[in-house]
Amino acid sequence: MFRRLTRHSRRKCGSNKAAEDLMTLLSSLVEKVVIPTEQIDVLTCRLEDHLNPKPYLGYLFETYVDNMKAQKTDEFSVADEAVMRESCIRFITTLVDQIRQ
């Protein structure tokens, strides 16, 4: 009987840990694209209503964009940056919606 209780307890703790991990993942993804001063519920809020117009998308992304701008070639424009940034934001918001389901 004790073994069954211990196994049940481990499973329950494991599911709590998984839920905590999912909440942490959701929070970190939401923080990437939402205006920093906004206080929102990551489980229910429509992200589209609180998007940061130019979010910091991480060191590698921002460094890449800065390097492309520094090369001063016609191959990379402000419009290209906007398209890349919008694609990343759309990916993150879609991912958050999928995780919520």
Q: How would you characterize this protein structure?
A:
This protein has 101 residues and is an all-alpha fold. It has one domain. It has three helices and no strands. The chain has helices at residues 2-33, 59-70, 78-100. The protein is elongated. The two termini are 36 Å apart. 5% of the residues are buried.
Brief summary of the model shown:
It contains 3 helices and no strands. It has 101 residues and is an all-alpha fold.
Radius of gyration: 20 Å
Largest sheet: none
Q: Low-confidence runs (pLDDT<50, min 5 residues)?
A: none
Number of domains: 1
Number of helices: 3
User: Which of globular, elongated, flat, extended, rod-shaped describes the shape?
Assistant: elongated
Order of helices and strands: HHH
| Span of the ends, CA to CA | 36 Å
Please tell me the overall pLDDT: 85
What is the strand tally? 0
**Helix coverage percent of residues?**
55-70%
Describe how the helices and strands are arranged.
Blueprint: H1 2-33, H2 59-70, H3 78-100
Helix pairs in contact: 1-3
Question: What attributes does this structure have?
Answer:
single chain; 101 residues; mainly alpha; 3 helices
